[in-house]
Model the fold of this input.
Amino acid sequence: MMKYFILLFIFLISSNLVYTTTISLDESNCVLVKKYTVHVVNNLPQNTPPLSLHCQSKNDDLGQHNLTTDQDFHFSFCDNPFSTLFFCRFIWENKNVSFDVYSAGWSYNRCKYGVCAYGVKSDAIYYSLYYPLKNLTKYWGW
Done:
């Protein structure tokens, strides 16, 4: 009997890992894994060109987005603790930078509350453990 419970447990774990990362707006889709949400907020000055943003993972292209000042782009997903990786390209005026906005290994530090939040300013891109943004830490310079 115990053997069947162990096999069932292994099956559930392995099927969830094969499941890969899923873009989700409904936390109930996350079985045995945690839901994370990435926010990008345009904190650039008023009356400047919009922030151009393109985020994706190996499996999911989230498309190109143009954010005006104070506008937020966000997406949620079920984490595969071994392989989830999302990266974004940020373009504003003559500035252009790309970096990882979520990596599975960060879940216990940079995104430990289920949120990875970034505020884009004219001097750099900042991150926060919270949304709405607070306690910003400079992360990536232009």
